[in-house]
Amino acid sequence: MAILAALWGASFMLMRVVTPAFGPIPLSAVRVIGASLCLLPVLALRGELPALRRHWRPLVVVGLTNSTLPFICFTYAALSITAGMSAIFNAAAPLFAAVIAWWWLHERLSPQRVAGLVIGFAGVVWMVWDRASFKPGGTGWAVVVCLGAPLLYGVSVSYTKRYLTGVPTLVVATGSLLAASVLLCIPAIICWPSAPLSMADWGAAAFLALACTALAYVLFFRLIANVGPARTITVTFLIPAFAMLFGTLFLDEALTLTMLGGCAVILTGIGFATGMLRLPIRR
Hints:
Blueprint: H1 2-22, H2 24-45, H3 49-54, H4 56-78, H5 83-90, H6 93-104, H7 111-131, H8 140-163, H9 169-190, H10 199-227, H11 229-232, H12 235-251, H13 257-274
Helix pairs in contact: 1-2, 1-4, 1-5, 1-10, 1-12, 2-4, 2-9, 2-10, 4-8, 4-9, 5-12, 5-13, 6-8, 7-13
């Protein structure tokens, strides 16, 4: 779990480093194409390739909402805000997922979950209030776009539960990345940077695709199979810590009290909303 959190935390640092060279759309395309090429052979060895053809329509929707658009959001935001800040906003995905599941799938929200959602979104508002400046040179739009990614993840979770329940998780992961690759091919060609890319840029993009996406997916589903989804979701708590650590060590990003306080409030809300933390009950 620590390795998985470190890989996903490193992805925010790498996006911050190489997005200026590639641009948001080309880098997102390189990431999903590289990850797809790694996961397709694994799926073939498991004999699950026919499932891609049977479920291609919902897989395209999941590819759009779980990879294509969120990756573009994060890479665009990486041009303006720190890796740690992006990772903290990404941690709000379980909050959006709970609200969308309540609205769309009519899942019941207990008083504890409602309290967790209120606490978590209060932390998001606190951080956005401190950062959302829409004046020239401000980071307001980057913050708004960055928050679009966890919102899309929440949509993707409910859509997957409704239309892909029972489909093997690796099929969903590989199929959604493959769909994202197809969706991003032409936009990436149109937006491809005119300046030549260095070997360091390609190396960082390759690590982002192969380690932070393909390998991370394998580890994620391996954890689900071995320790269950409830424990696996606790990786949400570790990703911002690694992202802030890497940003501080390698990019000289400053850690502010607002970041630390907002992160603590959001993660507390996530803990209550997902049931990982429980309020004391008097018997």
